[in-house]
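Researcher: I'm preparing a figure for a lab meeting and need a structural model of a single chain. I don't have an experimental structure, so a prediction will have to do for now. The sequence is pasted below. Please return the structure as tokens so I can convert it later.
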Amino acid sequence: MKNVWKYALIASLGGFLFGFETAVISGAEQIIQKLWQLDSFWHGLTVSISLIGTIIGAVSAGKFMNQYGRKKVLLFIAILYLLSAVGCALANFWSMFLFFRFLGGVSVGISSVVGPVFISEISPAKDRGKLTGLFQIMIVSGIFIAYLTNFLFAGTGENAWRYMLGIMAIPSIVFYILLRNIPESPRWLLLHNRNEEALAVFTSLGIESHLTVDTPKATTSLFQSKYFKPITFAVLLAFFNQLTGINAILYYAPRIFDMAGFDADLSYLQPIFIGGTNVLFTLVGMSIIDKVGRKKLLLSGAVGMFIFLMLTAFGLKGESSSYLLFYIIGFIASFALSQGAVIWVFLAEIFPNEVRAQGSSLGSTTHWVFAALISWIFPVIVEGNQQGGFYIFLLYAVMVVLSFVFILFLPETKGKSLEDIGHTH
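Model: Understood. Here is the structure written out token by token.
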């Protein structure tokens, strides 16, 4: 088991870069808008271009993973993260910045599929939730560090945004070096009839071999009637994950506090509290996910999210706006404990072995399509209407209610092997 934790931790570093890449723009977005004199539409594109890249990455991830293996794809995205960081930091014109932000998004999209899948495929059933959950812990840690470095660099002059974006080069290099020491996924080796290599990896991991399992070929098509249920579960969970408004808050946190009338300096400091809450409650969720189960976490979190989204909506309307930070922290805590803790674990385990890469890719693509739409639309709504903040958070609250109903129909996957989960649908 020692090797399992080590390899899972290394693979999950892709989640750290994922989190950093997606949240770091919150500190730079207002500076960049002024620098290139962007209206709300083009500014929305500038922020969400990374998310458009994630869609491309997530769509292509399944094919790359099946063809080249999990390890090679992880190494590839480490290089993409590095290129994105350096390119954004050195960008001298808007289109160049867009290109490298897009590149960073591609790496996030691929990472969101391959990281959780690799970890789930090397994990024993009893610990799979917390091991795969390392990826989410790293995501929120990356978000927290992005907020922290944004705050530290905020007063460094006109090139502050370059430092905010460029510092990601350091963890990218570390990620690439460490990845060279992990094995290939044994379940991917099985799909390609490399049974002896798979057995050797299972043995090194100290977990039960699944060589006796009748494993279909890796070329199996996802879109068959027998996979209808896991497809539906994955797509809808990813859809509702984003319709809570989580990425709008993470990407535009300083702007939201500006809207509520907070001092500009505090607007950079307060996201650090959001990031810290995100890390703390994700750790709590990960510590209990294999005991409590995925479904109970999702249901309890939905109740908390609804309450705090409603409070945030009315806070932005001018009623008790001084408590806005506490409302948003409450929402973040509820999200981290539920949707945040479960989403990548569930997407990586709900599909059978033969279509796991494709299925996870589909779920992740759905997630990023709606993340991009929400992030692009958010500044258009809040800048175009005095009560825009109230209405958009009210919409998020309604979507959480709908998600609660959907979650009631989800299967519970805790404690089951990947093969057993695959045979139940």
